[in-house]
Amino acid sequence: MLSIKKILVPTDGSDYSYNSLRYTSSFAKEYNVKVYIMTVIEIHHSIYDVYADEITMDMQESKIASLVNQRLDETEKKAIELGIKDIVKIIRFGSPYNEIINIAKEENIDLIVMGTHGRSGIAHFLIGSVTEKVIRTAPCPVLVVRPSVHGMISDLKTGDKKLDGD
After folding, report:
1. Domain segments of the chain: what residues?
2. Does the model's pTM come out above 0.90?
């Protein structure tokens, strides 16, 4: 029997992340799970070399965290609208892939549900794929929600998203 108690949903605030939240809502309703909504802030330290006299790393991280927290609050509201009741919000600084894996281990996550931008070719090669790295190293199953998925009706322009059967 499948036992899912904790689901991790890494989000960057994009429509792709919202699609993964839609899938998560189905699991949450079915299994009454705790959902961890996570955002990772990747700080590029080269900016501190240029502006070292004007800003400190702590000041910059605090400002960024405030903005990201607002976006995470919006994601939480969407999750509540989708019927997800037990939500934990997490903001981490660092490498997105590393922090996703760290939280999955620390919190004994049963399933990671994450979106992918669906890049291919040179864009995938240059940018890399956080999702791909998570799939290879996650301590639990990973469900990847592609931009166009079978079984999901999605209109990214209007923001109207439904799962078949809703």
Report:
1. 6-163
2. no
